[in-house]
Amino acid sequence: MSNFELSYITTKSPLYKEAVEIREQLFFKNMENSLDLINDDFELEGIHLVCLNEDEVIGTGRLNIEKEISMISQMAIKSSYQKQGIGAKILKELIRFSIEKGISKIELSARETAITFYEKFNFKPMGDKYPSNKTGIIHQSMVLKID
Questions:
Q1: Residue 31 confidence (pLDDT) above 70
Q2: Any idea where the N-acetyltransferase domain is (predicted)?
Q3: Which CATH number fits domain 4-145: 3.40.630.30, 3.30.1490.100, 3.40.50.1110, 3.40.50.720?
């Protein structure tokens, strides 16, 4: 993983389009309104982090901060790069950034298949599982309290 690097980008960055394409492929493939689903109320205000392999975006995550709570969303890794620690690298950086900003709690909605991944980083399930409003895929709200 030594040649993978993280970079914060804005929605005006040339890399942003690549990050959106990864999210569109993994979350909203074959959905007519996929770009509308990505461009939700949090997109423009989001803090966007990408993982690069040389100049190629291979993973992305979005962070929104409101008061003392961070919300992590839209974490996606290109299929050919999954299971190589890239998601962990992105998540650890978003947690580090949140702590640096004085955040007391980080929340996210995990796909059912990703719950154990987030539990490895001490995120705890909160409430019942539910179908996503955007895709219908079962999700679980999760929280990490920062001491």
A1: no
A2: 4-147
A3: 3.40.630.30
